[in-house]
Amino acid sequence: MKEYIKNEFGKRRYELGISQAEMESRMEISTRQYSNLETGKSLCSMKTLALFLEHSGVNKDEFISGLVETFKSE
Fold it and tell me: CA-based angle 51:32:21, to the nearest 5?
């Protein structure tokens, strides 16, 4: 699951063309917290996940489907 979260956070930020600092600001989380998510060092809370989905423009249904598939394959 960490790998999926890591990939989605990094991929979406890259697609938006914004820096880590900009994404951190949008999500109102610390630099360390965001960096740990994007490098796979930690998982996010439900609140942080909701903020990511809200501020990244990710299709929520597709994100959840991908997450479910990740759980099935682990």
Answer: 65
